[in-house]
UniProtKB/TrEMBL annotation, chain B:
GO terms for cellular component: plasma membrane. PANTHER family: IMPORT ATP-BINDING PROTEIN, TRANSPORTER, PUTATIVE-RELATED. Keywords: ATP-binding, Hydrolase, Lipoprotein, Nucleotide-binding, Transport. This is Lipoprotein-releasing system ATP-binding protein LolD. The gene is lolD_1. Pfam families: ABC_tran (PF00005). Its EC number is 3.6.3.-. It comes from the Bacteria. The keyword Nucleotide-binding applies. GO terms for molecular function: ATP binding; ATP hydrolysis activity; transmembrane transporter activity. Residues 2-217 form the ABC transporter domain.
Length: 353, 217, 839
């Protein structure tokens, strides 16, 4: 889930109008100096639902939902909803239009033969975008996720000229702390972020694509992550998986690609009861298989994933290999399904290609 | 050096085509000098121009250094002129905007055969030392013709074609120029074909041919 | 010296000609220089204007934008903006205001009281994101860094000229005014030529601060909606959706203006090319000897041709560069006038700083090359066709006769085509084609006419000497004809353009007197203020009449037009400049809601008196036209009706303009009282004299470029004549020598020589007058109507002809000076040379 940080920063760099210096501050400036911002502490306590709130002292954070859905007629779909926040200078927070927070929303919808994406931009301080608690709400313009008082059920909405969705996400399992009690390490040098997931979400609702309205059900995964300097300097992109195994277990895996050294692997095996088993880099094998051309780039849309210690050996396949997010900064993100030692479905995100 | 066989040429006139000659033959050996004589309008200048590749023959062959100039295209003929021929007209032989020196070396430069020692010798022989930086308009007719001879010889072309080179000069000047030219021709072993109407002049060459009523004798 | 490529010596020989003939070279240089400079100068102006239009059209606050404004007098509340965003409306906020320097800097006693700064606050986040969807540019500076723009101390962007203007004030700025942010830090100032003059672009945060608009927004731009839906009900009472005005396509409006300039610059280019032609022609003729020698030394025809072309391209390429620099300079000189007149005529903002693309330079060089090749093609073909060996024993008299015959046939054909073009075709382009054909015919027929005239003179001459004078002049015509044609074209253009401008000026001043009958004009800011002003005026004794007017915009047959309501009053009845009217028109307008339309609209839609037009009024859909009035300088169609008719049918018409009748002695007092009472600026209250001054100033600036170009063309023609004569002067000796030998003194010869040239110039000038009149007729009755939509009376100005004829004579006299002095001071020996055969 580091991915999202990079996208935000890449986007800002694009807006800024100058290319990030390629090797000095890591990918898209993610490794740049975080002086003045709050730092990730190894022994912090992360609680739920407080983790849903914003953490403006940190430089970046995001609220991120993916859902693997199925319509009444049996069609497989996927949706994405993301809200990013970035501070362009450290606290104290300035009021009104002077506020230093920038917000960015991304939404996507993928079917086997179609893929849509859209983005929205806002600045903090005036209410166009933000996050509030009691109950939890995160929004940018008319795209929003809102929880009930106990944060057990969420409504998720997005509307674009091409598609829109209104979904209800019911929490059917506990929140999961990723990494070491919620501190997810991103590099051998120790860059890290706070990382909490809600992998057990049952979805129902409706999707509108053009004139077509679909009733859908399925499984969703919500990620919360915040940090001030999550990437090492030479990390240039990543491949991230969230997998719903058919028997109810969950698996999160990512690979950070280094320009100069060995790739960094991390992940968590989550039992159906919510018990998290953090995975060490050497436990994980991620092997790109088939390459596919989309938007002038070549990306691996099929993967071999293995975690021997948990008897995992999967071969994943994209629902739509053309799930290209043609947003300000483009990347690949879409639903996948997998076979092998286990079967199931999930989401794949690939950036920096 | 030069072999002309079965050469025919007619001119277009308002009264219809006029046959100048229909079957002309002659040879010119290396180092030989030949005068070409005949009445005005008999076609002797045309014959010379055809040898120079400046005018096209209707029929026949003109071999210069064993190459048939009649079979050549414009570019090849030009190349042949540049390498093998030196041509002197009756007047207006010089490029008005170039200095005497630049005129003198013009063809040698084009043929890429500039030989400074030879040039110096030519300049001295032709008495042009003091004139090199002048322009043609500042020279007398005789001086201009001397420069023209120098230009034709500077590139060491094996065949010199002269069309009444002294025709526009007074007697004294003409004598001077022709003497210089013949001396240099002999000295260098250059072949010479010269059109003239003066039998006195013709007598100073190895032999002379007369074109009359389309026949060469 | 040895060259890698021996053939380069051919180029050396070719070029040597120019060094030996500096007059020819300078003719070529001057001709090409002038052609390139004038052409590229005007192109630079046009390009700059087009660039400015594009920038304006691409700007975030372009008038082509759908937007949301406040329904009342109050600005929009921020909460209303957020509400719209949260409803999914793709809007971006703007905070705008105009501040005087005094208020902006919070400084007192500033010398420049009238300078007003437009402050525009933007939110780059919403502006950028919305813009990305349509791939356009926002009109924001390319090098704007979002992070810096949004981070303390924040940024302000302005044009370099504005920055230059503000620099002295920045030093004495106080911490509570500009350029300090609310925290008291100095903001960083950046410049970009993409911005208009006296405009500051900054973040919304700072704009609100400096304008005192915290929590408020001026308007919201709607960026993605092609077809905006209705506003939500809760906001509909406070906000108003304004749909894009498609009529504001400035480049379309100004196209005719630029076409005019282009046509004139093309003419200048052609006159320059005539010089180039004569230089090249002469150079090639004089290089026949060279050609024969080069040929006999073993250079093929084709190779020589290639070198000749290369030589010309080389020379013209080298000349084109300084020509372009000169063009740039001309453009810089003309740009201020051009931007002023474009702003006045069309409201088009043209940046007064010239920015040129590399394409402009490239185009200029290609134009020079193309022109040179066109000028060279005939001489080159002649050279090739010439026998390679024999120096052409041409028979000039015979050739000339044949040439004249050919020219007269071509000239008549072109004349016929001109007549056909005049009859057919309604577009501006066909109008210019007509002009071009008239010029072409004149150029072709000129030598023929001149020849006939001279032979007529020759026959009627009594004495031997005068007979020789004319015969010799006739002999000179072929050599001088190019220069004389250049002079003819330049003179007739001067007469045509001068007549048109002068005629327009007469008409325009007369029209202004009629149209600006009221003494004082007031424009208020709002409805409320308008009411206050009305009340205040009612209590002011010196005002004899208050004539309110209002305006609204609508469309007629798809053409955007302006509606104007006015109060029928003797001021209008006595003075309004009507071109045609039905009887009892004023009563009809007052009581029967009849209307009058301006000339532009009448011509554009072919409307006549008594016609009905369909307008979408609230009460009424049909309006009868009872008068047509002239409306110079207005690019738009206009319909005038009584105020009551306008209010009944267009209740939301923009009110608040007044014309006031005042005793002349009271004008100044009233104006200062109005300014004092209501805080009006100098542009809101105007006295008649000021409006007239402004209009006339605008008029002058509009034609400043035209007249400057015109003068330059004339100068080029004079130079062409001069260089031709100078070139000929050497040949003249040959021709004059026999006369001298026959016992005519040199003094006498000089006199005859001068007389002959003056006679040629005089004849040319006399021929130019009718041609100029034809051109001015085309301009006022064809081009003007098609370009601007109004006709002008075709007036004649003999004093202009007189001055131009005088100018032609003087320039011919000056041009003849050097050759004649040469003749005067030449030794008998040199004259004797004329008898020699060579050279």
């Amino acid at each position: 889930m580091i991915n999202k940080v990079g996208i935000l920063l890449m986007l800002l760099w694009a807006l800024v109008g100058c290319e990030p210096a390629p090797s000095t501050h890591g990918f898209a400036g993610l490794g740049s100096d975080a002086t003045g911002f709050a730092q990730v502490e190894p022994d912090a306590e992360i609680g739920y639902p407080e983790a849903l709130n914003q953490h403006p002292d940190f430089r970046i954070e995001w609220w991120y939902v993916t859902a693997n859905l199925e319509s009444e007629s049996g069609e497989t779909l996927g949706i994405q909803w993301t809200l990013f926040r970035q501070a362009n200078s450290p606290s104290p927070q300035r009021e009104g239009w002077a506020n230093q927070q920038l917000w960015l929303g991304h939404v996507g919808l993928t079917r086997a033969n179609q893929h849509f994406s859209a983005d929205r931009y806002a600045r903090g301080g005036v209410g166009q975008a933000g996050v509030a608690m009691d109950p939890f709400t995160a929004w940018i313009d008319h795209w929003a996720i809102q929880a009930d008082d106990q944060a057990r059920e969420f409504t998720l909405t997005a509307h674009t000229p091409e598609f829109s969705y209104d979904l209800v996400l019911a929490k059917v399992g506990p929140p999961v702390l990723q990494g070491n009690q919620g501190v997810s390490v991103k590099s051998p040098q120790g860059q890290a972020s706070y990382y909490l997931s809600l992998p057990f979400l049952q979805v129902s609702g409706s999707i509108q694509i053009g004139d077509e309205t679909l009733s859908v059900t399925g499984e969703a995964w919500l990620d919360r992550e915040w940090s001030s300097q999550p990437l090492a300097e030479d990390q240039e992109g990543w491949d991230w998986f969230s997998l719903h195994l058919d028997q109810g277990d969950k698996l999160m895996l990512f690979r950070l690609r280094h320009r100069q050294s060995q790739d960094y692997f991390s992940g968590t095996y989550i039992s159906a009861d919510g018990t998290a088993h953090p995975l060490q880099p050497n436990q994980i094998r991620m092997q790109p298989l088939r390459q596919h051309s989309v938007a002038g780039r070549r990306l691996p849309v099929e993967w071999q994933l293995s975690v021997d210690d948990f008897g995992i050996d999967l071969r994943t396949q994209a629902l739509n290999p053309n799930a290209w997010m043609a947003t300000g900064i483009a990347y690949w993100e879409g639903p996948i399904r997998f076979e092998g030692s286990h079967s199931g479905k999930g989401y794949l995100e690939m950036t920096g290609y | 050096m030069l072999q002309v066989t079965h050469l025919a040429k007619s001119h277009q006139t308002p009264q219809g085509p006029l046959q100048l000659f229909s079957d002309v033959h002659f040879n010119l050996h290396a180092g030989e000098s030949v005068a070409l004589m005949g009445e005005s309008g008999c076609g002797k200048s045309t014959l010379l121009h055809m040898v120079a590749g400046l005018e096209q023959a209707d029929k026949g062959r003109i071999l210069i250094a064993d190459q048939d100039i009649c079979q050549m295209n414009d570019r090849q003929r030009s190349q042949l002129r540049r390498d093998q021929l030196g041509i002197i007209f009756q007047q207006l032989n010089l490029i008005p905007s170039l200095t005497i020196y630049d005129n003198l070396v013009f063809q040698a430069r084009l043929a890429n055969r500039v030989d400074d020692a030879w040039l110096a010798y030519l300049v001295a022989s032709l008495g042009l030392e003091t004139l090199l930086t002048r322009y043609p308009a500042q020279l007398s007719g005789g001086q201009q013709q001397r420069v023209a001879i120098g230009r034709a010889l500077a590139a060491r072309a094996p065949l010199l074609l002269a069309d009444e080179p002294t025709g526009s000069l007074d007697e004294v000047n003409a004598e001077q120029v022709i003497t210089l030219m013949l001396a240099l021709v002999k000295e260098t072993g250059t072949s010479l074909l010269m059109v003239t109407h003066s039998s006195l002049l013709a007598a100073r060459l190895d032999r002379s041919l007369t074109l009359s009523q389309g026949q060469l004798k | 010296m040895r060259l890698r490529m021996p053939s380069l010596w051919i180029l050396h020989a070719l070029l040597s000609h120019w060094w030996r003939h500096p007059v020819q070279l300078s003719t070529l240089v001057l001709g090409l220089l002038a052609a390139t400079a004038l052409w590229s100068g005007v192109q630079a102006l046009n390009q700059q204007a087009r660039l400015s239009y594009d920038q304006a059209a691409a700007r975030f606050d372009s008038l082509n934008q759908a937007q949301i404004v406040s329904a009342g007098d109050q600005p929009i509340q921020e909460s209303e903006y957020i509400r719209l965003r949260r409803l999914g409306w793709a809007v971006t906020p703007l905070v705008e205001g105009v501040l005087s320097l005094e208020i902006l800097f919070k400084l007192e006693d500033l010398p420049e009281k009238d300078v007003k700064i437009q402050i525009v606050g933007i939110d780059p986040m919403t502006l950028q994101s919305l813009n990305r969807s349509d791939q356009g540019s926002t009109g924001l500076p390319d090098n704007l860094s979002l992070n810096d723009f949004l981070t303390p101390p924040w940024q302000v962007w302005m044009s370099p000229a504005t920055a230059e203007g503000l620099r002295p004030l920045l030093a004495k700025a106080k911490a509570d005014g500009f350029p300090f942010n609310p925290q008291g830090e100095k903001v960083s100032i950046h410049t970009s030529t993409a911005l208009a003059h006296n405009e500051l672009i900054t973040d919304l945060y700072l704009a609100q601060h400096w304008l005192g608009m915290e929590g408020l927004l001026s308007r919201l731009l709607l960026l993605d909606a092609d077809n905006p839906s209705a506003l939500p009900e809760a906001l509909a009472s406070t906000l108003r959706l304004v749909r894009p005005q498609s009529d504001h396509d400035i480049s379309r409006l100004t196209a005719s203006f630029h076409l005019n300039l282009s046509a004139l610059s093309l003419l200048a280019f052609l006159v320059g090319l005539l010089m180039v032609y004569s230089a090249i022609h002469l150079a090639l003729t004089q290089r026949l000897t060279l050609r024969r020698i080069v040929f006999s030394c073993g250079v093929s025809q084709r190779e020589l041709m290639a070198w000749l072309l290369l030589e010309l391209l080389l020379l013209s390429g080298l000349i084109a560069l300084p020509g372009l620099v000169a063009g740039y300079w001309i453009a810089t000189l003309l740009l201020p006038d051009l931007s002023a007149s474009l702003a006045g005529l069309y409201g088009a903002q043209v940046s007064s700083e010239l920015q040129l693309s590399w394409q402009w330079w490239q185009q200029g060089v290609f134009m020079a090359w193309g022109g040179t090749l066109i000028a060279a093609i005939v001489p080159l073909i002649k050279l090739i066709k010439q026998d390679g060996v024999h120096l052409g024993q041409s028979m000039p008299s015979l050739n000339d006769q044949r040439r004249l015959k050919g020219l007269s046939i071509l000239g008549l054909v072109s004349l016929l085509m001109a007549v056909l073009t005049a009859g057919l075709g309604q577009s501006l382009l066909s109008g210019f084609l007509l002009l071009a054909l008239v010029f072409l015919s004149a150029a072709l027929l000129m030598p023929v006419i001149l020849d006939r005239l001279l032979s007529l003179c020759q026959r009627s001459a009594k004495s031997m000497i005068t007979q020789w004078l004319w015969a010799d002049a006739r002999l000179q015509v072929p050599n001088l004809s190019v220069a004389l044609v250049a002079l003819l074209l330049a003179l007739s253009t001067s007469i045509g353009v001068g007549g048109m401008v002068e005629g327009f000026r007469n008409t325009f001043t007369g029209w202004l007197d009629q149209r600006l009958a009221a003494e004082v004009y007031v424009r208020t800011d709002s409805e409320g203020q308008a009411q206050q002003v009305t009340q205040w005026l009612a209590g002011t004794p010196n005002v004899t009449a208050v004539l309110p007017s209002a305006r609204a915009a609508t469309q007629l047959e798809g053409v955007p037009i302006e509606l104007r309501g006015f109060q029928v009053h003797s001021t209008y009845v006595d003075h309004w400049p009507l071109l045609s009217e039905a009887p009892q028109v004023w009563q009809a307008i007052e009581s029967e809601s009849a209307v009058m339309i301006n000339e532009q609209l009448a011509r554009q839609l072919a409307l006549n008196l008594g016609d009905s037009i369909a307008l979408q009024g609230m009460q009424q859909r049909e309006f009868t036209i009872l008068a047509i009035f002239s409306d110079y300088g207005n690019p738009k169609g206009q319909v005038m009706m009584s105020l009551d008719t306008l209010y009944h049918n267009w209740p939301d018409a923009e009110r608040g303009s007044f014309a006031l009748r005042v005793e002349p002695s009271q004008i100044d007092g009233l104006i200062s009282a109005l300014k004092e009472t209501f805080g009006f600026t100098g542009t809101q209250v105007l006295d008649q004299q000021a409006v007239k001054r402004y209009s006339l100033q605008l008029f002058e600036r509009t034609f400043a470029a035209t007249q400057a170009l015109n003068l330059l063309v004339l100068a080029i023609a004079a130079i062409a004549l001069f260089s031709s004569l100078l070139t000929l002067s050497n040949m003249r000796l040959t021709q004059v020598a026999p006369i001298w030998a026959c016992g005519v003194s040199r003094r006498h010869l000089v006199l005859i020589e001068l007389l002959r040239l003056l006679a040629l110039a005089l004849i040319t000038a006399l021929l130019a007058i009718p041609l100029g009149l034809i051109i001015s007729y085309c301009l006022v009755n064809v081009i003007n109507i098609r370009a601007f939509g109004w006709a002008l009376p075709w007036q004649m100005f003999p004093h202009q002809w007189f001055y131009l004829t005088l100018a032609a004579l003087v320039s011919a006299g000056l041009a003849a000076l050097i050759p004649i002095l040469k003749l005067h001071f030449c030794s008998p020996g040199e004259l004797l040379k004329g008898f020699r055969d060579d050279q």
